[in-house]
Amino acid sequence: MATSRAPLRFAEAISATVSAARESGFFFDFDGTVAPIMNDPDAVLPVPGAVERLGALAELFARVAVVSARPAAFLRDRFSGAPGVRLFGLYGLQTVVDGEIRNAGEAEPWAPVIRRLVADAARDLPGKVLVEDKALMVALHYRADPALRGAVERWSSAKAAELGLAEQLGRMVVELKPPVHGDKGTVVEAESAALARAWYFGDDLSDDRAFEALRTREEGDPEFVGVKVAVANSETGDELARQADFTVAGPADVPAMLDEIIRAFHGNRQTQ
Questions:
Q1: 124 belongs to the catalytic site
Q2: What CA–CA distance (Å, rounded) separates 187 from 211?
Q3: Catalytic residue (choose from 29, 183, 203, 245)
Q4: Across the chain, what does the average pLDDT equal?
Q5: CA triplet 156, 159, 165: central angle to 5 degrees?
Q6: How confident is the model at residue 6 (pLDDT cuts 50, 70, 90)?
Q7: Strands (E), 5-129
Q8: In angstroms, rounded to a whole number, what is the distance separating the alpha carbons of residues 78 and 96?
C-alpha cells in the first residue's frame, strides 16, 4: 500500500531540487499562474518578470515547460524571450519544436468538427459568451456574465454528447476538445519521467491532473520529489490549494518564489 510522504517545508523542497539540478524540472500553467485572468484572452501577457525567471530556470535545471490550454502559437509569441522553455499548447495536443508547431496526429481529423462547433456556439449562445476558436478546441468563456454558467454548461454537455467530444471545466470557461487521451497530467508524466525532482505551478481545475501525476510518481518511486504549488484565486483555487504543498497569493507573486529557487541554486554552487 502506498503511503503519503511527510509535508514538505519550502526550504527543504528547494534544497532537494538544487542539489539535483540536472535531474530537476519545473512545469507551469499559463493563465492564472504566470499571467492574469482577463476578459479578453488575446490581451493577456505574462506578469512582469515571469518570462525572464522561466528562462533563467531553463538555463539552470534539466527541464522547464509551460503546459496550457492556450494554442501553441500564442505561447510561442509570449515566451519568445525564453527559448529554453518547452511549450505545450491545447493540453499537449500541440507542441513547439524548433520554433515550429506540431499537432497531435490523432487530433487533426477533429478540426472540421471543431469548426462546426464554433459556428454552432456563435449562433446558439448569448452574445456575452465569448467563443474562442482554437482550431483543435473551442473555449466558451462566460466571465462577462457568470449567471450564464448553467446555460453554457448545458449546451456544452449536449454538444459533447452529440459530437463525441470531451469537456474540460475551468475558471468561468468550458472547453470542448477531441476525445484524445491527454491532459496536463499526461504531459507532466511524460516530461518528468527521467527527472528526480519536478515542480508544477497551477491555479485551475485542469491542473489537478498534473498534481495527480506527481503524486502517482511519488507513490511508485520513493526517491522522487514532486512539489505542487497552487496559485490562489477565489473561483477554483480552494480545491487545488487543498492538494498543494505550497500556495502563492497570485500570478504576480510567482516570480518572487522563483527568485528564491534561482538564488538557492547559485548559493549552492558557491559552496561546492
A1: no
A2: 12
A3: 29
A4: 94
A5: 95
A6: low
A7: 24-28, 63-67, 86-89, 94-97, 100-103
A8: 13
